Each structure stands twice: as C-alpha cells, then as structure tokens.
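task queued by scheduler; priority normal; single chain, no ligands, no partner chains; default sampling; output format set to structure tokens
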Amino acid sequence: MKLLQSIFTGRPLIRSLGRRYFAANPEEYSRRNYANNLAEYNTVIGSITNQRRQYLLRDVYDDMMLDGVQPSRESFHSLILGCMKGARLQDVLFFRDEMKSMGLVPDVALYNFIISSCGRSKSSDLAVQILEEMKHYEVKPNGQTYMCLLNACAASGRLDRVYAIVRDMTAAGLGLNKFCYAGLIAAHLNKTPVTEDTTNKILEYVERSKEWSSVEASSGTAETVMSGVTEEELYNIVTAEYSHRRAGFLSRQLTVYHVAFHASAELKNVEMMKTLLDMLNKDGRSPDIFIMIQVIRCYCHSGDFDGAVQAFQNFAESMRSSVPVDMYVALLEGAMTGLTTKGMQVAQDTLLKMSSNGYFLNGKAGSDLLLAAAGEKTGGYTVANMIWDMMKAQNLIPSLPAVEAYLNGLKARDIPADDPRLTLVSHTYKNHLLRSGGPQRRP
C-alpha cells in the first residue's frame, strides 16, 4: 500500500507517463521532448516566457524531471519569473516549493517576484506570509521587497496594511517615492466601499508626491534589470503592460498621475479627471498617451461619448506624429460601454476612421473588441461585423470566446441558415474547438 501511495503521490511521474509513452521510438521521443540538457531547457524556458505561453512551464519542468535533468538556481529563477509575468500564482508557489525541496533557498530577488505574484492575484494575506518566510530563512528584504508588499496590499484594498508599511518605511528612514504614492492611491481606489473622501485622498496624494524629487536614480536591482523586469511590472502599477513602450507613449516622471487618472476612469469621475488635468497643466506638464487613454475611458464610462470624441480629436490635432492605434482602441472599447445606441454609433464611426487612415487591429485587440461588440442585442450588429471583417482581411483568427460570442449573436438574429457569414463563423468556431481539444482544455 505504501508503494502504491508513493506512486500516486509522485509529482510529475504519472502525468508524464500518460503524456510521453515510454514505448515511443527514438524519433517520436525526440519530437515530443522539449530539450536534452540543462542549457537547452533554460533556453526553452526563456523562449516560452517571451512567447507569453507561461501555461507550458509546468510541462517543461515535468519534462526535465523525466529526463533526469537537475534544474539550477538559474532555471528556477526563469521559471518563477515567467510565471510571475503570466500571473500564474499557483505555479510560482509550486516552483518555490520544488526549489526548496532541492535545498535551494530563494534569494531576495526571487522572493520579490513571489510577493509581486501575490499582488497580481490580489492575495495580500499570502504576500505577508511570504515576507515572514523570508525572515525565517534569514533572507534580508530590500527596498523593493517592501514596495512589492505595499502594492500587493494596495491591490486588495488593504489600506490599513498599506499605512502600516508606509509607517515602517518612514521609521526606517526610507523616503516615499512615486511608487509608494502610486500604492496609496491604488489602495484608496480598491478599498470598498468607495466613500466621498476617496477622490479627495487621491488628489491629496498627487499633490504630496510632488514633495519627492522627480529627478531619481533607478532603484532597480541588478537582478530585475538583467531579467528585463521594469519597476512598473514588479510593483504591478497600472502602466506595467506599457512600461516597455517608447517615451512618448509613457512619461516615466508621471507615474503618480498615471495611477490617479486611471482611478478617475474607474470611478467614472469626470470632475476629478478635469482637476487632474488642471494640476498637470500647472506643473508645466502635458498629458502623455497613457493619460489621454484614461481621459477617453473616463468620459466613456460616465456616458459622455461626445466628450470622449472631442478629447480624442483635440489630442490627435496636437500630436506631431500619427495617432497610436491604442487611442483608437480605447475609444472603441469605451464607446461600447453599456452597448448604447449612441455609443455603438461612435464605435462604428471610429472603425470607419481607422480603416480610412490605414490602421489595423492586432489579434488580441481585435478579439477583445469583437467579444464586446458581440454582446449587442439590438441594432444591425454592424460594429461586430466590421471588426470581424477587418480581422479576416488581415488573416487574423479571433480568440475562441470572441468567435463563440459572435456566433451566438448571429444565431440570435433573423439570418438564413445558409448565410455565407454565418457559415464562415460556424466553420471557424468548429476549427477552434478541434485545435483546442474542446472548451474544457483551453489553457
């Protein structure tokens, strides 16, 4: 019985046996194998992370175990970093446990990645536990550790914990930088319920952040710099996914404003947004593209589609270069808020303008927009049809959820069963299911 228990609790063995088939011939084995040695596996891990296919990292690790390849500290560093970027907290914890079982204690950089992963999953309790684990293993936290913890608690709206961390940092002689103020603003935004004081507090922290010098030396450690992780990514700031974009898109000196403008959009508070624009102007600063996206979102979320269009046009006219497609996408997404008649007309006009100006949608943006447009219950379904046609013209296949929603929307309308569009979408949906092995097996 103990033998059977040991077999069925074996970490990757049973899963690997079912997947790999030991009876396969050498050619077949080689085709199924990810790599043959540690160096190759480390390369594969990096490649999978760069392709944003982090859901495969556990499978790669199982493959290593089956091949008898001993992971190095570098391997675990890449695995945990990849899972952090993919917001796969359970996999991060799995690799931490595997690492410790092999006698390798994570260093401070890896613990920072783990705490950051907790923040992405809004697991502030676990983030605090990870800090205690660091102390247990005598791994000394650094400034980034507390910043990761502060923003992890902010993501959960744990204002009490955020204040406690700020007090500890102040008592230790650590000054509050822009990421601290960003965390304080995020904590007020995410704290429920939202109160009348929320707006005042956010504006207050924007003002107080100016006491901190905008001329800064990067606080990034060698580990994060070499890993290609920006501080915005590490602390889960709202600009994280844009942090590798060109300077004109994102002005790094405006981090606190970025978080505040994002909060105004989430709170649907146009008055707050206009106040922030006035504050920015008094500081002698101009909005960057990220801020204008939040301005557009704020107008749309509050139902003022005319205000959103006017803001888009004014900013477009002030630009020396072409308008980035992100602004068009922001206006499209915002216009479809509530799927109102007015908003869908704005979305239709925006799509026509994009097409006439030679803009294209990428796979992700197109899929997200199609999924939103497919929810329209009345009207001519024009926006959804236009997005589908734009993607087909580029030979782009929307995601399975988007195709499924679009297909259901077509079926709900009075369309003949042999309609060419309905036939094509049905065929695309069936092919999606075949490739994915069915809805239950999507990663």
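post-processing summary
- The mean pLDDT is 87.
- Residues 4 and 10 are 10 Å apart (CA to CA).
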